[in-house]
């Protein structure tokens, strides 16, 4: 059988990508050779993915800030920048999880969990005006 034209595969480029979840500190996350095979660097990678996922949840509430009426373009630009940063972080978390390392997957889930919990608990703690607090009862004097 004849080989197709094009570059021949090099035996030194024998890189196999993991295609199922696995445990272990030997992983390649985002960049070739990172975090390496040292436990400290792996823990740093877990913390980095956790922070990225946490930041996504925190940044998800910032676009709700209303632009000022005096400078609507500045408000729109601010919201666009925050959205772009959040999407960039989202893609980095997605690429990290695609390493199929179970520790990285759990760190990403934990970051989203903690971030969502803190953001939503703060939002629920703010009292919302109700009908009874917005109206004042007028009691006629006798």
TrEMBL record:
GO terms for molecular function: copper ion transmembrane transporter activity. It holds the Pfam family Ctr. It is a multi-pass membrane protein. It is found in: Membrane. The keyword ATP-binding does not apply. GO terms for cellular component: plasma membrane. The keyword DNA-binding does not apply. The chain crosses the membrane at residues 39-62. Keywords: Copper, Copper transport, Ion transport, Membrane, Transmembrane, Transmembrane helix, Transport. Belongs to the copper transporter (Ctr) (TC 1.A.56) family. SLC31A subfamily. This is Copper transport protein. The lineage of its organism: Eukaryota, Viridiplantae, Streptophyta, Embryophyta, Tracheophyta.
């Amino acid at each position: 059988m004849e080989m197709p034209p094009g570059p021949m595969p090099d035996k030194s480029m024998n890189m196999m990508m993991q295609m199922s979840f696995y445990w272990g500190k030997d992983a390649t996350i985002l960049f070739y050779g990172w975090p390496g095979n040292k436990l400290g660097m792996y823990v740093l990678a877990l913390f980095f993915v956790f922070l990225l996922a946490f930041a996504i949840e925190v940044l998800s509430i910032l676009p709700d800030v209303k632009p000022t009426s005096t400078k609507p373009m500045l408000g729109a630009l601010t919201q666009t920048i925050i959205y772009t940063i959040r999407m960039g972080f989202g893609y980095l978390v997605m690429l990290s999880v695609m390493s199929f390392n179970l520790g990285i997957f759990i760190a990403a889930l934990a970051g989203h969990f903690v971030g969502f919990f803190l953001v939503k608990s703060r939002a629920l703690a703010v009292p919302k005006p109700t009908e009874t607090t917005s109206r004042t009862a007028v009691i006629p004097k006798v």
